Structures are given as structure tokens and as C-alpha cells.
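User: Hey, my collaborator sent me this sequence without any context and asked if I could get a structure. I don't really work with proteins. Can you help?
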Amino acid sequence: MTETTSPQFPSSTPASASEAAAREANAPLRVVVIVGSNREGRFGPIVAEWLLARVRERSDLSVDVVDLAEVDLPTSLSFDPSAPVAAELAKVTPKLAAADAFVVLTPEYNHSYPASLKSVIDWHKAEWEAKPVAFVSYGGLSGGLRAVEHLRPVFAELHTVTIRDTVSFHNAGALFDDAGNHRDPAGADAAAKAMLDQLSWWGWALRGAKAARPYGS
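Assistant: No problem. I've predicted the 3D structure and written it out in C-alpha cell form, which is a compact way to encode the shape of the chain:
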């Protein structure tokens, strides 16, 4: 009797873990832009749209947004948050956890940053660790830079890498027209490119490092 064999067809099993890891390693960096102000009449959305347009131009970055005007987190922290608080956290926490890098957009209130921003920072810990954070600020004469300098040690405590170069808008209201366009964008565009280049470098470096060895191990 002649022995026969079944025909061999290409495997339909899922890609191996190494192939999935390779795809993940080459995927664009996931950047979350955090709009830090929830103040009535805030100027933040104008600056945010300007920033998002620059991020979206880049093939090495994908972007998501956390707008703190759309989140209501209490200042009283809890290890066992109530159902309403858990629902608010669900708007934010998954985005922060999935991010490879952050851009924090902050105004300056009384020489520092808004309470809404401190609240979302304090509600999270592991979501920030071993990721780069860049800053875009706006305000009056100081351009929000004092808020940025207050944020740097806070984020250092959370094991992030803060990007040296910032984008700051001094007397921000006069810099944009009624349609939200920067009146003289060359300098701001150059500053944004330098900041995003640094954010990208650190994002790729830290992603690769964590793939090789989980942070804290």
C-alpha cells in the first residue's frame, strides 16, 4: 500500500511573540498631549490646536489628548475610589498607561501650574515612569515658564525624563489671530521641532530600554 501525506498549507496561526514585539518596536511613538487648564474662558485650546497640528505632521509620532476640562478628579486621593471617581479615571488612566511620551500644556497661575494638573499627576504613578515629558507653556511676560520649572521636580519624583527645550508663549493672547493662527510662526515652529525631536529621541531610547529590561528590575 502506498503511503500518502496530507498537503501542507501555510500556517494560519497568529504571529509569534517576537514578530509582534518587532512591530511594536517600530510603531510610531504614542504621545499624549495633556491640556492642563480647566479654567473658565481658558486660552489653552488655541495653543493646544497649534501644538497638535505640529505633532500630527510627524510620521514618528501618533497623538492622543487628555483635556482636563473634560475630567473631574477630586483632590482627595483614594486607593479605593468610588464608582463616580473610577469613571473619571477611566477617561484618563488608559491613555496615560498606553503612552510612550507626554507633552504637558500649562498656563501659569500665581507663579505655578493649575490644581487640575497636579490632581491628574497625583492620581497616577506607574503610568508616568520611565517616559519622557515635554512642556509647552503660555502666559503673560513669563510665558508660563515658572509653571514649567515647578513641574520639573514633580515629574522627576515620578521617574520621568523631562525634556530640556520648551515652547513658551509670552503674552500669548496677542500672538494668535481670531482664527487661532500664530501671527509670526517661524520661531515657535522651530522651537516645537527642537522640542519634539528631543521628545522623540528619548521616547525611542526609553521604549527600547524597557523592551530589553523592564524598568525597576
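In plain terms: The helical segments are 17-26, 44-56, 83-90, 93-98, 115-122, 145-157, 186-212. You can pass these C-alpha cells on to your collaborator as they are.
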